[in-house]
């Protein structure tokens, strides 16, 4: 754990007249208080990184990353964006690295039996028990989104909300399997992972951001570990979600995908299988395959609305989206219904405000 630094703040400090600066300071203090834990699970050692401390009567925000990445590559841009400062001030944040995917991980021996995505979902109860988190808001990308969906189906009472980016709820069909095999004959594992993360247009345009991730993935010292996670993702089972059926996500869900992203059709299909009164679908313009990296400010603002709809941060002020809601973010499905606090959520927020006044 990093050494804590003492910070003197007096009542007449200018920070108290500038909420954004105050929130920024809080976020920096949380970075100072970063903690890392290695947690033993039935399916391997899981590394978690904690920012901040648990808040009474508030869920923890827990993340799970996509293939070819660790939590820093997947989420650092989003959580260090200024529009996330107010959120990280109000919630403890926990980043989970899948076994063998964390920075500095040892390379697994040849023949190592890597856990399936279903088994990775069952590492989450071990993490929550170890950290004593009674409930969470999950944020997952790609394979991590699938892991959170699978976990929530098995443990619905511990999940208050989900943000699922680029989720594909379906198992690979025979055509997908054949295409994957053919691709493996002509492309390396890092190249296939890159085509999973980014659109063909992004890879050809080779922007600074994409170039940075290309370099990191192509030169990864644990590419064989990355391949194991990649293989588990491609062997996933169908979630069998059914709108109005027994197998469904019962908590509030925000589905996110970039316009023209590789997983756009899969996310659209997932949206059609979920309860429209509990689900919001955000198709983000100009964000490509990784909206949490290319459009972190817009996603942070959407996440604020989502959290407010759950009854938290009722007094939070909107910035970016309130100024240019229609220009910066396009959405489909039932966005307006799900992003506006429900009567129950509004009541919870009013109760929280009343308790704070007392």
TrEMBL record:
Which residues lie in Basic and acidic residues bias regions?
A: 347-358
Q: Does the keyword Cytoplasm apply?
A: yes
Q: Which InterPro entries match?
A: AB_hydrolase_fold, NDRG
Arranged from A to Z, the UniProt key words for this protein are:
Cytoplasm, Developmental protein, Differentiation, Neurogenesis, Wnt signaling pathway
Q: Where in the cell is it found?
A: Cytoplasm
SUPFAM superfamilies hit by this protein: alpha/beta-Hydrolases
Q: Where is this region: Disordered?
A: 323-358
**Name used for this protein in its record:** Protein NDRG2
The species this protein was found in: Staurois parvus
């Amino acid at each position: 754990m990093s050494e804590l630094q003492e910070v003197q703040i007096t009542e007449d400090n200018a920070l108290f007249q500038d909420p954004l600066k105050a929130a920024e300071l809080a976020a920096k203090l949380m970075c100072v208080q970063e903690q890392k834990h290695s947690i033993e699970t039935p399916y391997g050692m899981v590394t978690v990184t904690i920012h901040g401390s648990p808040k009474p009567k508030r869920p923890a925000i827990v993340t799970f990353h996509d293939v070819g990445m660790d939590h820093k590559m997947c989420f650092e841009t989003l959580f260090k964006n200024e529009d996330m400062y107010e959120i990280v001030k109000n919630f403890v944040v926990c980043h989970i690295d899948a076994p063998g995917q964390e920075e500095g991980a040892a390379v697994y021996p040849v023949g190592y039996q890597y856990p399936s995505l279903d088994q990775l979902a069952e590492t989450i109860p071990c993490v929550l028990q170890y950290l004593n988190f009674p409930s969470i808001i999950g944020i997952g990308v790609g394979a991590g989104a699938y892991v959170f969906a699978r976990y929530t189906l098995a443990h619905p009472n511990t999940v208050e909300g989900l943000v699922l980016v680029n989720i594909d709820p379906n198992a690979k069909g025979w055509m997908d399997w054949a295409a994957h095999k053919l691709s493996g004959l002509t492309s390396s594992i890092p190249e296939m992972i890159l085509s999973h993360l980014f659109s063909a247009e992004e890879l050809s345009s080779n922007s600074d951001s994409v170039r940075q991730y290309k370099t990191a993935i192509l030169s990864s010292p644990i590419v064989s570990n990355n391949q194991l996670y990649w293989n588990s993702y491609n062997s996933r089972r169908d979630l069998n979600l059914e709108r109005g059926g027994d197998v469904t996500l019962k908590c509030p869900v925000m589905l996110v995908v970039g316009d023209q992203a590789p997983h756009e059709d899969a996310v659209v299909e997932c949206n059609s299988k979920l309860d429209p009164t509990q689900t919001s679908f955000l198709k983000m313009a100009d964000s490509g395959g990784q909206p949490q990296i290319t459009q972190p400010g817009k996603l942070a603002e959407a996440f604020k609305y989502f959290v407010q709809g759950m009854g938290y941060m009722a007094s939070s002020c909107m910035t970016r989206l309130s100024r240019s809601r229609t220009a910066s973010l396009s959405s489909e499905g039932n966005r307006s219904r799900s992003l506006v606090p429900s009567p129950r959520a509004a009541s919870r927020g009013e109760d929280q405000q009343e308790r704070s006044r007392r």
